[in-house]
Amino acid sequence: MRLSDPHAQHREDLGGAWVGAEVESIVHPFMLEYTNTNGKRPRELFTESHKELVKEGEKWMKVIASSCTVAAALIVTIMFAAAITIPGGNKQDSCLPTFLNEKVFMVFIISDALSLLFASTSLLMFFGILTSRYAEEDFLKSLPKKMIVGLSTLLLSVATMMITCCASLFIILPGKSRVVILIICLAGVPVTLFTWMQFRLLIDMVISTYASRILDKRAKYGS
Q1: What is the pTM of this model?
Q2: Are 42 and 34 in contact, with CB atoms under 8 Å apart?
Q3: How far apart are the first and last CA of the chain?
Q4: Would you identify the CATH topology of the domain 64-221?
Q5: Selected residue with higher pLDDT from 111 and 185
Q6: How far is 155 from 162, CA to CA, in rounded Å?
Q7: Which residues form a coiled coil (predicted)?
Q8: N or C: lower Cβ tally within 10 Å for the chain?
């Protein structure tokens, strides 16, 4: 189990908590109060045997959340600055945006607002992960859901940020579509790589969190 393999790490973290929850759901409640020769209940033994797994899971979650927090905070800063310093500036007589009546300007404003909203939501989700108590049951529902929402909104904020950038370039460089497209393609390479890496992690977490439970329930009840 290594932090360098986030997909395997997440499956082990979620699997340990999931097994404990499933065992508790199928055994008689009276059995949960039994103690062994050392006076320990099943839950206490489970917690003790998975102590290292919880620690490794906490480290992995914090590494991912910290990295994504930096990215989300950067997007929030950029989008907030873009909303203040709009392309084309304002008219001197009315102080209204110069390109207020242009359709591409409305695209710029809407995408900027959406990117700011998604990035802020992502930032809050990752803050929630960093400040979590990291109990065993948190790895079953709370932490995976926060991570899924955080990654989803982060990817959406990146997508809307690129739309904002494209709209801004079309406003600043009217009639120079070839130059704008070339700039967008070059700038989109690192963004695409980042999105692809995070998207793989997001898909893996969704499958591990939801698909495995659905399949297990179908097998359990024979439906």
Answers
A1: 0.72
A2: yes
A3: 34
A4: Butyryl-CoA Dehydrogenase, subunit A; domain 3 (1.20.140)
A5: 111
A6: 11
A7: none
A8: C
